[in-house]
Amino acid sequence: MRGGYQKFPAPWTSLIPVFVRGGSILPRQAPNTTTAASRQNPFELLIAPHRQRGQNLAEGFLFWDDGESIVESFDTHNFYHWVFAYTGDRNGASLSINTKRQA
């Protein structure tokens, strides 16, 4: 997609258009009526690779806590932090998920 001003249709009868920058990984989870109910839904990763030097690359991250506590200090707050990295070429692809912090 070229830069600059562009118009895209967003009819009421379908989902809104979502644009993701190449090279990004977005964790997604279906919503529900409450936080507790949403947390029962599985995650999926939307991978939007960016072609660079013959490889398709993407990266992203996820912070996950209880969804209710107020964060007073990240030094003492319990949360998970994962980092995702995707690489691919015509011979195959790999996705790594590394835990950077565990609650």
TrEMBL record:
GO molecular function, one term: alpha-1,4-glucosidase activity
Domain of life: Eukaryota
Cited PANTHER family: ALPHA-GLUCOSIDASE (PTHR22762), P-TYPE DOMAIN-CONTAINING PROTEIN (PTHR22762:SF133)
UniProt-recorded name of the protein: Uncharacterized protein
